[in-house]
Amino acid sequence: MSYSDFTLRRVKQDFNLTIVEETTFLTSIESQQPSPFLADFLEKYLPLALALNTEKARSEMLICPILLELKDIFPQKISLFSGNDFTVDQSVGLNGVCDFLISRSPEQLFIDAPAVVVVEAKKEDLNGGLGQCVAEMIAAQRFNEQNNQSVPTIFGTVTTGDRWKFLKLESNTVTIGLLEYNLPPVEQVLGILVNFVAH
Questions:
Q1: 184 vs 44, 101, 189, CA distance in Å?
Q2: Burial of 13 (C-beta count, 10 Å sphere; 0-12/13-18/19+)
Q3: How many CB atoms lie within 10 A of CB 181?
Q4: How far apart are CA 10 and CA 13, in angstroms?
Q5: pLDDT for residue 106 is more than 90
């Protein structure tokens, strides 16, 4: 097994999780104004990404620029990984590649704890990516514990690039925000991601 094999039902059963569904757990989040570069980039390339409509195009043209902006907001404080192997415990299926992973470590040559946000890219079906995202969040939680860098909350998002759904993992409870956040505008999604990193 690997992350991509997990459904939400399977990950709940395998890791004895409590699933809480809320409209949103994101309250009092301040919007974050994008840089002129990001605003111009998304205005120019969002239509192309949607027209191409592949997971790769959406990742490269929508998700990655937003996460790079996040890295600029926290200079020398976080690291961003894309398509890296993140095998934590192969015996229980916590192995494979994360689309994107953010750590609160400035170390960029390898993934260092604490991992705080996982981003799962999907072409269309957000709910279909929830199980995989939760499995990657559990892996991040265990990775941090193994490296003596535990954090109380691991955040996750499943996104098509223009639609975002957010999750959090605290102990063995996963809260899934049912509300989808759409681009444009980018300010709300960027504000949520900034809050996750600063949390």
A1: 12, 23, 9
A2: exposed
A3: 20
A4: 5
A5: yes
Identify the pLDDT of residue 27: 87
CB 164 within 8 A of CB 181: yes
CB 142 within 8 Å of CB 89: yes
**Tokens 């689309």 sit on residue:** 99
- The 10s digit of each residue's pLDDT in 19-70 is 999 999 998 899 999 999 999 999 999 999 999 999 999 999 999 999 999 9
DSSP 62: I
Q: Do the Cβ atoms of 63 and 159 come closer than 8 Å? A: yes
* 103 and 143 Cβ atoms separated by less than 8 Å: no
* One-letter amino acid of 152: P
Cβ burial, residue 191 (10 Å; 0-12/13-18/19+)? middle
Q: In the beta sheet, which residues pair with residue 43? A: none
The pTM of the full predicted model, rounded to 2 decimals, is 0.95
pLDDT band with cut points at 50, 70 and 90 for residue 125: confident
Q: What is the chain's mean pLDDT, rounded?
A: 95
Q: How far apart are the first and last CA of the chain?
A: 32
| Torsions phi, psi for 119 (to 5 deg) | -125, 120
Q: Report the C-alpha gap between 16 and 63 in whole angstroms.
A: 31
* pLDDT tens, residue by residue, 162-188: 999 999 999 999 999 999 999 999 999
